[in-house]
Amino acid sequence: MSSTPTITPEIVAEHGLSPEEYERVLHALGRVPNLTELGIFSVMWSEHCSYKSSRIHLKTLPTTGARVICGPGENAGVVDIGDGQAAIFKMESHNHPSYIEPYQGAATGVGGILRDVFTMGARPIANLNALRFGRPDHPKMRHLISGVVRGIGGYGNCVGVPTVGGEVNFHPAYDGNILVNAMTVGVADTDRIFYSAASGIGNPIVYVGSKTGRDGIHGATMASADFGEDADAKRPTVQVGDPFTEKLLIEACLELMASDAIVAIQDMGAAGLTSSSVEMASKGGVGIELVMDDVPQREVGMTPYEMMLSESQERMLMVLKPGREAFAEAIFTKWELDFAVIGRVTDTGRMILTWRGETVADIPLAPLADEAPLYDRPHVPTPPRAPLANVPAGGDVAAELLRLMASPDIASRRWIWEQYDHMVGGDTVQRPGGDAAVVRVHGTPKGLAMTTDCTPRYCFADPVEGGRQAVTEAWRNLTAVGATPLAVTNCLNFANPQRPEIMGQIVGCLEGMAQACVALDFPIVSGNVSLYNESKATGGGSAILPTPAIGGIGLLADWTRSATIAFKAPGETIALLGAPGGAGHLGQSLWLREIHGREEGPPPPVDLAAERATGDAVRALIHGGSVSAVHDVSDGGLLVAIAEMALAGGIGADLTLPLDAGAAFGEDQGRYLVTLPAGVPLPQGATAIGTTGGDAVAGVPLAALRTAHEGFFPALMG
Length: 718
Fold this sequence. Notes:
single chain, 718 residues, Phosphoribosyl-aminoimidazole Synthetase, Chain A, domain 2, 26 strands, globular
C-alpha cells in the first residue's frame, strides 16, 4: 500500500462514519484502511447511497405489477407500454447542492436523472420537477428561485429534452433547506433494455464521457448530513454540469446500444466512480480491477482518493464484450468524448485499485455492498390533530377567491415554465398548466401522461393520510387527462431520521403510500431517499415538512383523446363527480392558512375504494367522448378549480350551488369537475352545479381573476 495519512477518529468523523460503523470497516477489511479505502466505505455507507435508515421500511412498498418489467434496484424503473415498447423513468433529489449553489445544483440534478434513464437504453422524452421553497419574502428566496429555475431550464433546454410539468410549494419550513426533485421519462424497445450487473471474467471496463475533476468530492457525504452554520463553505462539493456534453453522451450511448457491444452500463452519479464500479461488480457477483492512471483527468496531480470520490458530471462506466473496444472508441471519438479502458472484470470478488504501479485499495466487495449499516431507528407516530374548531364563518367568498388565486401555492407558474422549452422534440401535446402533461410516443398514436404530486402540509399533519393522498393525487391527475395510471417513482424528502418524530413521519408516509399503491394498482418501480433536510444555518428553519414527492406516469392508447381543463364553450353543464355534496373539509386547507393564518386540524381523509371507482368512471367518460373538460379538485377546493378551468378557457361560470367557505374552499378528496355539452345526460352519481358562460366566476370578473392569478411570480421576481 502507498503512504497514507494515519486514520484518526477525527478523519473518520469527517467522513461521516460513526465509531460503530468504523468498527464494521475494520472487521470487513481485517485491518486499518488507508485514506482511499476509508473514502470508498464512507460514500458507499452514506445515507445517500446506502439508505441505511430507510431500507427496512422501503421493503414494505408494492413494486410488482402486470406491466412492471423492472422495479427498484436498477438505475430507473421500467414498465411495458405495449407494441414492444417500454417507458423508463425515475425521480431524484438534488436538494443540498441546490441550496448552496442553486444554478449548478438544479442543472446537475437534471443531468443526473437524464443519465439514470438513458443508461438503460431509453431516449429521454420529458423532464419534470418538484420544487419547494421557503417564505417568498425570505432574503435568500428570490436568489434561490431564480437560480433553480434557470438551472433546470438551462440544462434541459440545451440537452434538447422538454420540461413539461412539475409543482412548486412555499412554506417557512423550507427557508433553510429547499427541495429540488427532478424526474425524467424515456422510451425504449423492450428487447433493448440495458442493465448494470457486470459479467464476463476478463471483460474490459470502459470509462466514457467527460474527464474527471475535483468537483463534487464528498457530494454524497454532504447530502447525508443536515446543514450547519457553514452551508456556504460547502460550495466546492457541488458539481458543475455541461448540457452540451450530456447531449453528445446520450447520442453516443444510444448509438453504441444499437450494437451488441455492451455487457453492462452504469452512470456515474452520487459517489461517482466508486458507486458505479461497486454496484456493477456487486450486482454481477464479480470482482473489479481499475488502473487509476488510465482514468481521464482534467486536473493535474489528482490522487486515487479524489478520482474515486469525484462527482464530475457527464460520465458513464461500461463493461464491453472483449474485442469491441476499438468499435466503441470510434463512436465516442466521433462524438468528441473521452474513451478509456480503465480496468477489467475479475473473479476475485474484490475491488483492487492500482496507481503508479502500486495497489492503493484492496476491498472485498461483499461487505462493502451487503454489510452496509441497516438501522431500524426508533420512531414515534405523529399524534392525531384535534378536530378543527371555531371555523370562521360568513366571509366574503368573492374576495377570498381572489386572495387564494394570488397566493403562492395556487398562483400561475407561467413565469417558471415559460423559461423551459416544453415543446422541443415536437411531441408535447399537453403543456404545463393542466392536471398532467401528455407527450406523444413518437411515431405512434400513444401518449404518455406524467405528473409530480405531494401535499406536504397534509403529510405533516397526518403522515399516513398524507402518504395516501400524495399517491392518489398523482393517480387522479393522470386520470383527469384520460390516461390509465401505470406506475410510480418517488423522491422521499425528510429531515433527520435520528429524531424519533421524524422517523415516525417516514414510517407513516410509507405506510400510507403503500396502501394507496395497492388499492389503485399503481406500483412503485423506482425512487430516491433524501434525508437530513434540515438546517441550522442562520435564518433557516429546522426540519422541512415531510415531502414524499410522487412522480406518476399513465398511458393513453390515443393521445388525441386526452382531456384538458379548459372550458370549451358557453352553455355547457358543469358537473361534480365524487364525494357527493362534500363535507366541506377545511382542516389543513389553503383557505384556512392563507385567509386566516391557521395551520390546524386533520387533513382531508382519502377513501381509496371511492377514489378507484370515481377515477375509473371519469376515464370512461373521457374515452367515450361525453365530457369536454375535466379537472380534479385539489388545493383551494371547488371554487379555485372552477376558476382555473374558466381562466384556461376564457369563459366564466354561472354556479347554482350555495357557496359558504366549506363548499367553496373545502379540500375534500376524490372529486372531479367535468363539463357536458348540450344534450349529454348527467353521468350516474354526478351533481350538476352550474353552466359555463359569461365573464365571471362567483361574481369575480375573469379579468380580475387573471390579474390576481398571473401576478404573484412577476411581482416576487421583479
